[in-house]
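Reviewer 2 asked us to include a model.

Predict the structure of this chain.
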Amino acid sequence: MTEFVIPRGSAGTRIILRYMAERIRHSAFTVSTEPRRIDQVIRESWFYEDANGLNGILQNIRPGGMRGNCADAAIVAGSMLQAWRLAGNRLLFWLVALRAPDSQEFNHVAIMVSDEGGRFWIDPTAPRDADYSNWEDMTEVI
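Predicted model (structure tokens):
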């Protein structure tokens, strides 16, 4: 497992987003799931575990389901999207760190996807009707 000191605030969030993006770009995940179904597929088998750190993708997938926090779910979803794209399908996606209006730190991460049908969120650890319209965001394109 990679360990390093993460600065607080926006600098630390940027480091984590870049680290997550590299893990997604270099994943060896295979997928047969259409991107607009990935949120539901992960949601059906995800057990939320708040953790300090990021699990490896294979550590997230265990008998009985997948486990981890929002960052872990974003890495799994991003790896599935990357596999879809590497199979010759067109889409754009990026990691989005989010900070609530009353928070001093970015405290959530999800994935925004853009395909021929428009933009949509993959955010399986949040309520389906989550509204981030007043939240600050920081993005990392994959």
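The beta strands are 46-48, 61-62, 65-68, 92-99, 108-115, 118-122, 136-141. The longest helix spans residues 9-25. We have added this to the supplementary material.
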